[in-house]
Amino acid sequence: MIANAQRLLNRIGRRSVAAVDAVGYGAGLVAEALVFTVVGHRRGQPVRLAAIVEQMRQVGFDAIPIVTLLSLTVGLMLAIQFIATLSEFGAQTQVVLAVAKSVTREFGVLITGILVAGRSGSAFAARIGSMSVSQEVDALGVMGIDPVRYLVAPALLAMLLMLPVLTVLSDAAAILGAALYSAPMLDMSVPTYLTQTLAHLTPRDVFEGIAKSVVFALLITVIGVATGFSVSGGAEGVGRATTRAVVVSISAIVIADMVFSFFLNR
Amino acid sequence: MNDAEAPLIEVVGLQAFYGRRRILHGVDFSVRRGEIRVIMGGSGSGKSTLLRHLIGLQRPVAGSVRILGVDAGRASARELLAVRRRLGVSFQGGALITSMSVGDNVALPLREHTALDETTIRIMSRLKLEFVNLGGFHDLMPSQLSGGMTKRAALARAIVMDPELLFFDEPSAGLDPVVSAELDELILRLRDALRMTIVVVTHELESAFRIADRITVLDQGDILAEGSVAEVRASADERIQDLLHRRPRPVEVDVDDYLRRLTDEDG
Lengths: 266, 267
Description:
The structure holds two protein chains of two kinds.
Chain A: H1 2-39, H2 49-59, H3 64-86, H4 95-133, H5 136-142, H6 147-185, H7 190-200, H8 203-229, H9 234-264
Helix pairs in contact in A: 1-6, 1-8, 2-6, 3-4, 3-6, 4-6, 4-7, 4-8, 4-9, 6-7, 6-8, 8-9
Chain B: E1 9-18, E2 21-31, E3 36-40, H1 47-54, E4 62-67, E5 70-71, H2 77-84, E6 87-90, H3 102-113, H4 118-131, H5 147-159, E7 165-169, H6 177-194, E8 197-202, H7 205-211, E9 214-219, E10 222-227, H8 229-234, H9 238-244, H10 255-263
């Protein structure tokens, strides 16, 4: 009995240390990547614009179709639910306000974050993981190319730049989706719906989403690359790391979102 | 490095640990300019760990490693970077970046460390590919190469910056005898034509005897012998003779140790 309790405590202790260790490691990676971005040129370790642009294409541009499509769908779904619920109080016209606020503050950035975590977080983990396994990361190191500068910094910068852009795009698509369903239901034209939405929105609403997207970008990148660097155990290890990166980053996003909403809406 | 007599690599009392297990038990080791030094040993002898220290991938926890006159344990990131530009490493599996063509792989160190224009970089990297007999293969992707070609491409990348010091991990592992002999030939040419100092880690006896100026035999974390090919061949040490004649080593079991390993819960 006591032995069991001891073992349990032992395990909890080890897990906690490992968790703190992982957070520290992640923070270190971010700090290093940002330092390289600022002073890398002077140290002979420049973060190349071409590499950043290539990453921006992969994490941002290539995600546009899927982000647009899903946001449009979620907007439509929100409109259906809001109209159904609000009409019970005879307040269906409030759907414009409800959609505008919930999309810009919550849903736009959350959909974007989850999609990008699934697309790019896993890609970071898989790419860096397989490079670690085949000694490519070591090879970069001995060639005098810092792996953090070469692999992490461009990805981090691209994410920090593109996730806010995708979020704004997602906001727009979701509101358009809601407009397509709601406007006929409310006997108004789609442009009128959109104009009303703009009248309801304040810059703060949009900025709340954008602020979150920056935090999400950081979380997705760090979790993806850190999981990648810690891969061991060959091809199977890479697979496990990829899954882990997606699950952990989506959980982190959802929790961070909740914390954010709590503090921003008090 | 100003002093031609000073060794390029100087390792003193190097110890290394993997978890609680000690991999290297105080290794002393030095390499002179212009020689081909072969580090030989079976699997688990600690040769890969020694190599990781020599190329600066692992910092020594006990003992010291000086590479090209720089103390790897105390060097700043900037000093270590400067050293790395002066050495080349060819990894066992090649470690070519799989998302880049062979030509881009070879050109990578030049692109990252020099301000040369693209034409010069292209010519220089193709010259090195020609040197390793891979002329015209620059457009292929690493996945399209055979084992021997991958090793040669990795070698081309390792020498593209004309390093003073070249490390070669298991040049003949997994290759047929002809290809492996060709690689040995290449290594000899590198020393003779380009005046490189070369450290080769291998467990292949034949290849070791063909290329080595001096051989260091490593066994279970200790240096068993060091000397010329003839000296090592003539060594009276039983372990070395076991290694040379491919005799299986006797398994010694400590009963207490054995039981502890079987029942240990913390693994």
